[in-house]
Amino acid sequence: MTKLSVNINKIATLRNSRGGNNPDLVKVALDCERFGAQGITVHPRPDERHIRYQDTFDLKAVIATEFNIEGNCKEQKFIDLVLANKPAQVTLVPDILGQITSNHGWDTIKEQSYLKDMVSLFQDAGIRVSIFVDPVIEMVEGALATGTDRIELYTEAYASYYHKNKEQAIAPYIAAAKKANELGLGLNAGHDLDLDNLKYFAQNIPNLLEVSIGHALISDALYFGLENTIQLYLKQLN
Ligand SMILES: CC(=O)[C@@H](O)[C@H](O)COP(=O)(O)O
Ligand SMILES: NCC(=O)COP(=O)(O)O
Q1: Distance from the CA of 121 to the center of ligand 2, in angstroms?
Q2: Is 167 known to be catalytic?
Q3: pLDDT, tens digit, for every residue of 206-230?
Q4: Do residues 202 and 164 touch, judged by C-beta distance below 8 A?
Q5: Closest ligand to residue 189's CA
Q6: 89 has which bridge partners?
Q7: Which positions bind 3-amino-2-oxopropyl phosphate (predicted)?
Q8: β-pairing verdict for 89-92 and 210-213
C-alpha cells in the first residue's frame, strides 16, 4: 500500500498572506488525517515564507499519523529543528537559498561523505531518513552508500512529460525504483503529482511506500473540498 502524506505548505502560504491564523494550519493537518491522509509533510524554508519553524512543534504535538519534515540540512537551523522535533521521517532536499521550489535531487556521489554524516546524525536520534534524488541509477546507488533508509524520487520530470508520452516519462522512474528495490532502499516520491498523473505512477512503480503531495491537492480542494479531494487521491493509490 502506498501512503498519502499531504504537504500543507500551501495552507501556511495562505495563512501568512494576512498575518493571522486563518486558515488554521494545525486544524487543517488534523482534518487531513481525519479525512484519510496517512501522513503530514512540511517543508520549512529559511525565509519561513510558508511553514514557520514554530509550526513544526505545534504540528508534532498533535499529529497521530506520520510526520515528515523536508528541507535543506546545509542549514544548521534545519538540523536543530528536526532534532528538536523528532519527526517520524526527515527528507533531505538539496535546496539553494531563495529557491522558489525544489528543483533537483542530491548528487549522492559527490556529496556522499557529507550525506553519510547527516544520515547517521538523524538516524542516531531515531528519525528515519529519506534522500531526495533524481531518477538516475547512479544516484540511487550513491544513496545506498550514505546509509539512508529511503529515497524520494523527484517526480517533476515525470509530471511535466506525462501528457506528452507517459511511457517515456515513467521509464527512468521504473528503472530507479527497481534499483532501489534490489538494493533494499525504501521508496517515496513527490513533486507535482496530481489527479491526472498519480494513478499511472503508483501502478507502475514497484513498492512505492509513500507519496507526498501538496500543490495540486490543495488546489483541487478549492473545487472539490478537502475531504473529497483526499478521498480522490487515495483512490488513485489503491
Ligand atoms: C521536496 C519537494 O518536492 C517539494 O515539492 C517541496 O516539498 C515543496 O516545497 P514548496 O511548497 O516550497 O514548493
Ligand atoms: N515531497 C514533495 C512534496 O511534499 C509535495 O510537492 P508538491 O505536490 O507541492 O509539488
Answers
A1: 25
A2: no
A3: 999 999 999 999 999 999 999 999 9
A4: no
A5: 2
A6: 68, 128
A7: 7, 18, 192, 214-215
A8: unpaired
Q: Which ligand sits nearest to residue 10's alpha carbon? A: 1
Helices 25-34/9-16 angle, 10° precision = 150
CA of 39 to the centre of ligand 2 (A): 13
Q: pLDDT (tens digit, 9 = 90+) per residue, 51-64?
A: 999 999 999 999 99
Cα separation, 173 vs 134, whole angstroms: 9
Ligand 2 closest atom vs CA 7: 4
pTM score: 0.97
| Per-residue pLDDT, 98 | 79
**Assigned CATH topology for domain 3-237:** TIM Barrel (3.20.20)
What one-letter code names the amino acid at 26?
V
pLDDT of 155-187, one tens digit each? Answer: 999 999 999 999 999 999 999 999 999 999 999
Mutate which of 25, 43, 47, 193 to test ligand 1's pocket (most atoms within 8 Å of Cβ)? 43
Q: How many CB atoms lie within 10 A of CB 12?
A: 21
The CB of 216 under 6 Å from ligand 2? The reply is yes
